[in-house]
Amino acid sequence: MELLLASGNDHKAEEFSELFDPKILVVKAAPEKIDVAEDGSTYFENALLKAKAYYDKFKVPVIADDSGLNVQSLPNELGLHSARFGGPGLTDRDRAELLLKKMDGVSEREAYFSCVLCVYFSEKEIFYFEGRLNGSIGYSYRGSTGFGYDPVFIPTDKAEEGLTVAELHEWKQKNSHRAVASALLSKFLAQRN
Question: How far is 20 from 100, CA to CA, in rounded Å?
Answer without folding.
Answer: 33
